[in-house]
Amino acid sequence: MSFWEYVGSRHAQLLTDTFQHASAVFQCMVIATVLGVGIAIATYRSEWAGALATMTTATILTIPSLAMIGLLIPVVGLGVAPTVVALTLYGLLPVVRNAIVGLRGVDPALVDAAKGIGMSRTARLFRVELPLAWPPILTGIRVATQMLMGIAAIAAFASGPGLGNEIFRGIASLGSANALNQVLSGTLGIVVLALLFDAAYVLIGRLTIPRGIRA
């Protein structure tokens, strides 16, 4: 059976796995973005706190993904739970680091001007600092999403959702007629999803970042 014949015969399952893969990455990135930006807001004003946040999230990223999921299985069980926890933790570093860099890079004169017209600290954060820090934050989100696309395939090890199931089934049946087709379909699906997500982020950047800031 050729690759395209295999895809045609398995298109329903492949579409389901693709949707689950995209959904898992998207939802974990939303959680990682909220947590990462929150951590950055709490730490960016302090050198040691910012360094500690960056070092901690970087340490998490050094843990092999297979080992991370294996360690989570006894704690949260199989399926979606270890996938969500692992992907969220892995997505933190680029978001935290870029958010801290972005917030620290805001021109102090603009913050002082906002303070001078009576803005509260919270108002300055949400109306001045975060909007100006958005470009590097978005870059961090893009980088984290590309990482998670590949890492999410390992979730199949813990009966997690996504295209990793195709890859693992193919590897487990190497030598059989459709083993290569299974691995190839899962891999190409992840690549296509990564490109689509990145294109979406480019569009979001064009819609949310003023041209002057992009320049």
What does the model show?
With 215 residues, the chain is mostly helical. It has helices at residues 3-9, 11-43, 47-61, 65-76, 80-90, 92-104, 108-116, 121-151, 164-172, 179-208, 211-214. The protein has a domain at 18-164: Orthogonal Bundle (MetI-like fold), CATH 1.10.3720.10. It is elongated. The mean pLDDT is 90. This is ABC transporter permease. Keywords: Membrane, Transmembrane, Transmembrane helix, Transport. It comes from Streptomyces noursei (Streptomyces albulus). It is found in: Cell membrane; Membrane.
Entry summary:
This protein has 215 residues and is an all-alpha fold.
Keywords:
mainly alpha, 215 residues, 81% helix
Poorly predicted runs are none
CATH superfamily of the domain at 18-164: MetI-like
Global shape: elongated
- How many strands appear in the DSSP assignment? 0
Query: Per CATH, what is the topology of the domain at 18-164?
Result: MetI-like fold
- CATH class of the domain at 18-164, named Mainly Alpha
Report the total helices.
11
* CATH-level-2 architecture of the domain at 18-164: Orthogonal Bundle
What class, by secondary structure content? mainly alpha
Overall residue-averaged pLDDT value: 90
Terminal CA distance reads 51 Å
Please trace the helix and strand order, writing H or E for each element: HHHHHHHHHHH
Beta-strand content estimate? under 5%
User: What kind of sheet is the major sheet?
Assistant: none
What is the gyration radius calculated from CA atoms? Answer: 20 Å
Overall helicity: over 70%
Subcellular location: Cell membrane; Membrane
Pfam family, one: BPD_transp_1
Protein name: ABC transporter permease
Membrane topology: Multi-pass membrane protein
